[in-house]
Write a structure and sequence with these properties.
By secondary structure, the protein is α/β, with parallel strands linked by helices. The protein has a single domain, classed as Roll (CBS-domain). It is 46% helix and 22% strand. The protein has six helices and seven strands. A four-stranded mixed sheet has the order 1-2-3-4. Helix 2 links the parallel strand 1 and strand 2. The chain is elongated and about 80 Å long.
Length: 149
Amino acid sequence: MLVSEILAIKGKVLFTVSSTKTLAEAVAVMTEQDVGSLVVFDKGSMVGMMTFREVLLATQKAGAEWQAMPVGEAMLKNPVAAALNMEMDELRRLMVDHHQRYLPVMDGTTLMGVVSFHDVAKAVLEEQSFENRMLKNYIRNWPAEEGKA
């Protein structure tokens, strides 16, 4: 299964934030939209990812002043990105190797979506369910051997 197929299952709704916004603003968007990440853009280019992990690290670092911290100071800078034609196994390896639960999917410099561990797990489950149904259907329709009754 390709990353493009995972995005097709998931949908392509994107949520972004500027690096100059505050963490409080980013957390408000993440909470309102029920998403675990925001892609950070500056001047039309992706510069980072903001996830709840980065929010927690920034909270620990800034203490009571965390809400005023700019997203640019807390974000994961230059995150590893996936390509549309990447196989799911390669995607999973990237996520594990780089300890990123969310990967932006890029087509050149264009953001196509964000894939999470949850999206990958859901895609695997759907793929396995489809294969299961096909195998069960094949077994039910198994042709009788000729000459045997």
